[in-house]
């Protein structure tokens, strides 16, 4: 095998430092105690970390505990030595008050591990929503050779002959429960049916989105993202990924060569074509900032809005993960986008080859699941990036706006892209749950539900609470959805027509903090504006008042990390990263090795 590197492996500074055998002995000694030999550790073979995100606490990624065996065998067969270690678990559905708190924590922890231990390269075991960005963010900061392996989605959920998608069914069944159409037992049965095997959400939620984008960014082997977790092909991919990790080290192929602006712009286009999650702009911004790539929320509008929707998966469409895989997965999407000239074929990927070489000619195998590009589900399926006197930026996912919603809200022939409505304001999800069904609130079918104090500082962590169902009495009258707006996030599995990720958040002094129930709002999609219909003087006087009361609405921190993160976290529009942490870039090449420990 060819060795292109002109630097020694970084692990040799620990295990084979001829200038200081005393330190080498100290480092070696404790890696020998579980059976690795001196002969192996001093053989000059690359040491490849397996950053393990699976555990009993994080069921979506738990199958990585099994896949790690195949990753190890791949690493061995290619001449490397595997060292597996745990990453701070992030379980989207299990962590209170929100898994949104933990992405940056896992990121920080992994940076320390990748930089401070004798690792030459790493396999990133990605899966559940925030595990993918956390690991890619860390690989970007350290900039050591890295390759990601998706754990894969669960098998399709079914109830009778109906496809039941994880997450999506919860939002739908909650409405049915509220409308009295199903009872508690039927509710739990539907939810259990949606999760029939190991793996992450089988819908096009944040997990499938981020795993697909990790492949589109060039950080996974082609075809890797969509393979369902229990399939044999998933094991095979784990083996090939382990093998390839060793060669990445030999070729010195680092994330900085892969994660370029062109690669990120491709990811934005792909996100539209797959009907990807509204969490993607947050995570993609975070990865780009840690890589030092200039990318703004407006790039989502410019590059992403006019892209056709190809993937027919819930919540925007019908199908689930197994279908996406059988239809050709991410390659079928990239191949078609390449053909149509919608993405750039030049970025290098972990294969050492370009996107063009890897994906040219790939196309859909099941045109109902992945549509042909000249027969899309929707012509323009990206996010509308909005601003106005209420906030600097918020996004609306157009691919989930239903026809009934369009008819009710966007049908004025004189003004087809705009609507006005009264705001019904909730001070957080507790307030919403307590009052939404109160007839005294007098919510009508043309109102807008507003949720605040739910951003990175306010919640804290930015919770997925902005998707709100209408009150029971409207559901019973057939009104299934109302527009929502808020400074929190929304689950990628939700199809609510919502203006999300509003920045600045109320807790940071954004004007969302001054809005009152029954104020009027105007949403104008063509001009990309959302405005609070109040005059300047009223806005100013409310702002003065708001500054005095803001603390009363922000809960106190319950843990040290909540408190620490609140002091330095930025807004959702710029990735909600720890501000200042992005100045640490490419630290493995730019900051030298860390000092000896003793
Ligand atoms: Fe983990 Fe959906 S909850 S992937
Ligand atoms: Mg989520």
Question: Could you outline the blueprint of secondary structure elements for this entry?
Answer:
Blueprint: H1 12-15, H2 21-32, H3 38-41, E1 47-52, H4 64-77, E2 81-86, H5 103-116, E3 121-126, H6 131-142, E4 146-150, E5 157-159, E6 162-164, H7 168-178, H8 184-193, H9 206-216, H10 232-251, H11 255-258, H12 261-274, H13 280-291, H14 297-304, H15 321-326, H16 329-339, H17 355-359, E7 383-386, E8 393-397, H18 403-409, E9 418-426, H19 429-435, E10 448-451, H20 472-476, E11 484-486, E12 498-503, E13 520-524, E14 529-532, H21 536-553, H22 560-568, H23 587-590
Parallel strand pairs: 1-2, 1-3, 3-4, 9-10, 10-11, 11-12
Antiparallel strand pairs: 5-6, 7-8, 8-12, 9-13, 13-14
FE2/S2 (inorganic) cluster is lined by residues 60, 92-93, 128-129, 167, 200-201, 205, 207.
Structure description:
Among the domains are: 39 residues, no CATH class; 170 residues, Glucose Oxidase, domain 1, CATH 3.50.30.80. It has an eight-stranded mixed beta sheet. Strands 2-1-3-4 form a four-stranded parallel beta sheet, sandwiched between helices. Strands 5-6 form a two-stranded antiparallel sheet. The mean pLDDT is 95. Helices cover 37% and strands 12% of the residues. The chain is α/β, with parallel strands linked by helices. Bound molecules: FE2/S2 (inorganic) cluster and magnesium ion. FE2/S2 (inorganic) cluster binds next to loops.
